[in-house]
């Protein structure tokens, strides 16, 4: 999620880089965020996927 670093953390979003998620373009680390909906690795939780986010060409990034 690309958003304002002062707004979205109040809803539980954290820097996506903590999960190995990165954008395909330059953006401040604190602005690219992720929200884990399941606790990874605990009680059968699903691991958080990692990698580079690829936006469709229509987004122009």
UniProtKB/TrEMBL annotation:
Gene3D superfamilies assigned to the protein according to its UniProt record, in alphabetical order: 3.40.630.30
MF terms in GO: transferase activity
Keyword vocabulary terms for this entry: Transferase
Highest taxon of the lineage: Bacteria
Protein's name according to its UniProt entry: Transferase
Higher taxonomy: Bacteria, Bacillati, Actinomycetota, Actinomycetes, Kitasatosporales
């Amino acid at each position: 999620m690309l958003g304002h670093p002062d707004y979205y953390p109040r809803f539980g979003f954290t820097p996506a880089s903590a999960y190995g998620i990165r954008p395909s373009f330059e953006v401040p680390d604190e602005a690219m965020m992720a929200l884990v909906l399941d606790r990874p690795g605990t009680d059968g939780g699903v691991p958080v996927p990692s990698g580079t986010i690829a936006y469709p060409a229509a987004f122009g990034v």
